[in-house]
Amino acid sequence: MTKLAMEGGRPARTKPLPPNYPGATVYGAEEAQGAAEVIHAQSPFRYYGPNVKNEVRTFEEEMARHLNVPYVLGVTSCTAALVVALKALGIGYGDKVIVPAITFLATPGAVVCANAVPVFVDADDSMNLDPADLERVMDKDVKAIIAVSILGNPCDMDPILAFAKKHNLYVIEDVAQSCGASYKGKVTGTMGDIGVYSFQMNKILTAGEGGALVTSNPELFDRAVRYHDQGMFRDKARYGIESADEEKAFIGQNYRMSEITGAVLNEQWKKLGGIVSSMQTRCRELQAKLTAELPDMKFRRLADPEGDIGSNLGMILPSTAFTQAFIKAMAAENIGAYTLYGSRPVYMLPQLFHQRTAEKDNFPFNYPFENPVVYTEDMCPQAVDYIARTVYVPISPLLTEQDVEEIAEGIVKVYRHIAQVQV
């Protein structure tokens, strides 16, 4: 058996892989030029200035055209988009929102910031929420489901939407990690009531920060625009809704996207197809090579293999000990591999688990629900199991065929070695 690099053998790669920042790795002169034009125009605010370039508006219109939805709103982050979405749906104090056990802190955090309380649904071997577990957390106070497509893999939306329809719930699609994904021919983020996107540093497209909200519902869009701009709707005529009822106006916050962000995203959006195509090709090549060499290896299940963007190859390993040894050995081979979120479901983070907020009496957790919200470590056992055993290898859009060969070599070598040692 080939000796591992950590034991003195030749590493599978002589240099590290490209960093796991898909959009940023394809930055070029065009992003710099777009940002520079806004700066030279001295007009970084989207709504007025001496020479506004309408970069955010252009980005919203191009994104709407690509997604085939009527309404897109650029905001400061995906967290902002989630809060705006919840406020647009009228969700707040005294409401519960279903959130997957495997997601980033921002998802349940946005629920709390909207003054509602998250209740957590288990995950399945896709690492997305398990539709079969939705009924367990359902009660009369639940008003919405946030379906998070983890690392490029779209959620299994049919049963989620069917459950929501049965119980008259809203659905928010959080596709922060999966821009460009699709499910049964439908673009991820366009199937629920509202979809939210992220353009943070390690996302598929990036401006460092930034987010977007999409919907086909004009009333929800009106509320979203108002909440993101302190209760105002400055350009109603653009959408043909000049007669929007000002009697329904309400106080909002400031989550407006800047023109500099919009300019960068206009250039990034042009590259989405190329990024996704490259990642899909390399991810499928890698999985095929591993399947041929390691026929017993279990991969993360894909709800729609054609719609997965291939940003990460997920491998479900036999045990937590196997996983930890695998990651350590892979690092020595100059191949990055990782588990998500410290190998823990999001509800185990102390600020959530102990229901602590910056507000008086830990508002909104202090609401006197008929069915109190209590979190226990074992309430989502599948999530606890899968998150600790699922290892991801990021697939950069810059990978070459030679890179894929070397990654496959390293994975096969490490997997076989650990399997032999731990048997």
UniProtKB/TrEMBL annotation:
Keywords: Aminotransferase, Pyridoxal phosphate, Transferase. SUPFAM superfamilies: PLP-dependent transferases. One of its GO terms (biological process) is polysaccharide biosynthetic process. Residues 1-21 are annotated as: Disordered. Pfam families: DegT_DnrJ_EryC1. Signal peptide: none annotated. The keyword Transferase applies. The active site is at K203. It is an enzyme of class 2 (transferase). It comes from the Bacteria. One of its GO terms (molecular function) is transaminase activity. The modification N6-(pyridoxal phosphate)lysine is found at K203. Its EC number is 2.6.1.-. InterPro entries: DegT/StrS_aminotransferase (IPR000653), PyrdxlP-dep_Trfase (IPR015424), PyrdxlP-dep_Trfase_major (IPR015421), PyrdxlP-dep_Trfase_small (IPR015422). Belongs to the DegT/DnrJ/EryC1 family. This is DegT/DnrJ/EryC1/StrS family aminotransferase. It comes from Paenibacillus aurantius.
